[in-house]
Amino acid sequence: MIEGTNLTIGEMRESIALDNARRYIFYTMLHRTDRILWRLEEMNRDGVRRLDREQRAHIRQEFQQLPSPVQRAFRDSDRVQVVLDSVFEMQERLFKWRNPKWSVGEQDGEQDEEDLERLAG
Fold this sequence. Notes:
Layout: H1 2-45, H2 53-62, H3 68-71, H4 80-98, H5 106-120
């Protein structure tokens, strides 16, 4: 009986460690896109319309560690707005990669509110 309990505890610890590792990986990838988004949004706000070669190389390097389905959304351009839009799409794919049921849209927002009401009620 004690042996079975110890086995169960070990399996639970392993499961928690795996979940934590996945969560850490996701947030690391999300942080990479957030940093780039922040900088691009500042540039856009300040009226900067073009990225130079070094900025583009830095952005590409930041995204090398992302999963290929996420990377495919990236549009390497010298235009700030084009890159900004593509990084938003990358984040959407990143959330979808983490949770295949996740999507963006008004209908989803309504569903989220319904889910919250059901949980609260």
